[in-house]
Amino acid sequence: MKRLSARLSPSASAAALGVRVSSRHLHLARTAQVQSSSLLPRAPITSSLRSFRTSPSLRQDDDPRKQPRESDNVDVLIIGAGPAGLSAAIRLKQLANEQGKEIRVVVLEKGAEVGAHTLSGAVIEPRALNELIPYWKDKGAPIYTEATEDHFVFLGEGFHVRLPTPPQMHNKGNYVVSLGNVVRWLGEQATELGVEIYPATPAAEVLYNEDGSVKGVATVDMGVSKTGEPKDSFTRGFELHARVTMFGEGCRGSLTKSVDKKLGLWKESMAGFQTYGLGIKELWQVDPKKHKPGKIVHTIGWPMDFSTYGGSFLYHLENNYVAVGYVVGLDYTNPYLNPYREFQRWKHHPFVKDTFEGGQCISYGARALVEGGIQSVPRLAFPGGLLLGDSAGFINLPKIKGSHNAMKSGMVAAETVFEALDQEEHTIDPKAYPDRIKSSWLWEDLHKVRNIRPYMAKGLVPGLALSAVDTYVFRGNAPWTLNHHKPDHEATKPAKECKPIEYPAPDGKLSFNLLENVARSGTNHGHDQLCHLTLKDSTVPEKINLPVYAAPESRYCPAGVYEYVDSKLVINYQNCVHCKTCDIKDPTQNINWVVPESGGPLYSYM
């Protein structure tokens, strides 16, 4: 069994990633996105991030896809270099250093660099960061813009009404940030402590011991053609075995989904399933006269009807940047609804458009987000593994925040696991983790708002009224907990029961053609790599999705991945921004999102 680090050269991450990214993203140098990316200040990437892959020698007489994988042992393995995973890694190393112990902590990240796949609004509540790294300001954290004003606005068609800002949306003491830049900085802090971070290393398979406990993961095979055949560049995946594996993949992680399928994690939640939203975001550089650093605006109402959950955010960062986005609950019923085009027409509302007139859209992205609250929190721990952050469902939806809870979950997980490292058993069962989560401020944060999303499922007006009673009368301690009724994909109605929606054409100034915006995400996948959007039954799109639901995948996807040509589904996987919406919203659950060998978005300042 070979030690992973023995296969690696300690080259600087910029050089390592330059070798990786240049071949996959070469065409981006010719796009408007790359031309505009010079506008985006980037948090530096630590020089100690190391490239993961080397090419093992293969016996030429065997199918290389069946070659045994090389493997290595680590103490703690973390899947995903997001706020949760990096906070767990940092806290583990802090505790080890305090007690003079040597532990090996490895983080695998599928993005080409730390932060490349990170997208959020974002307004960050620094509570967890204050606990994890108290002197973060002195350490140069890219957190510059303190919240200065909050606005909560109802939009009608052509008019607006300012509403009282709910207490959950008060942001005094919070900061408007690029979460991607914060994550890059957290990566630096982790590597300074001795954490090993391997970007461009998608974990594709969960490994199990004979007793059913999690053993670790295997990384994806590289160099597989779109036909499934190994190319000359084929490289077998690598196994990492750990005493405990932390899954911090974010929303609808593919490995988390596979663990749920084996262990039934969500069967132990109140709802029995998670419910989701789709967030679509743009970053603009606006006229300095229209820029107010720290200004925070949220809207509800138009263009959604009163039965569809959705709303917007508009956050003023530093340097004349404004982050703007729209979130649509994926429990919407009308298959003709197109979340991307709803967002584009929303920007033409009189209350909104003035901010962006004369400005420039410089980046775009999308991702699904968890909305289920504590009713949808699954079994959090199991022998050999546990769930972190969005993988567990720790977003506070009324606050429209999750990074503080993600970080706290990572810290709690680290403290739980560190105490168990001295036990004789090799595999750690972190069974104390759920109780520690429930006794932390994270659980209190979620418990007080647990009924808000179920209220909103009753419609906008009843939902607002019930939420007000819960918030102002019961202060989040109502003597009931409402449940969610059904998974999002089951909410979609047949097309014959719904009215088609007509959308205005984009003007190219405030609103944009979808593929024009996808180019701003830096997204790319190799044209001869295996498609990562798999169909359980290739006949379902033509037999069910198209005739019954009017091809909903051609509308809910915010990257133009799915289209029908001569009544046949075409999957343009190269466009995929890894949002996971198709995996969630497909009416028959026929689409299965798995990690590609490489690629995805290359987000800057998102």
Provide a concise account of the structure shown:
The protein is of the alpha+beta class.
Structure description:
- With 606 residues, the protein is α+β, with helices and mostly antiparallel strands.
- It has 3 domains: 4-19 and 70-142 and 178-221 and 234-270 and 375-444, FAD/NAD(P)-binding domain; 145-176 and 276-370 and 491-593, D-Amino Acid Oxidase, Chain A, domain 2 (2-Layer Sandwich), CATH 3.30.9.90; 451-485, no CATH class.
- It is built from 19 helices and 24 strands.
- The strands form 6 sheets. Strands 1, 2, 8, 9, 10, 13, 19 and 20 form an 8-stranded mixed beta sheet that branches.
- Helix 3 runs parallel beside helix 5 (179-192) and helix 3 runs parallel beside helix 10.
- It is globular, with a radius of gyration of 23 Å.
- The two termini are 40 Å apart.
- Residues 6-58 have low confidence and may be disordered.
- It is found in: Mitochondrion inner membrane.
- One of its GO terms (molecular function) is 4 iron, 4 sulfur cluster binding.
- Its EC number is 1.5.5.1.
Properties at a glance:
4 iron, 4 sulfur cluster binding; D-Amino Acid Oxidase, Chain A, domain 2; seven-stranded mixed beta sheet; FAD/NAD(P)-binding domain; 606 residues; eight-stranded mixed beta sheet; 3 domains; 27% helix; 24 strands; alpha+beta
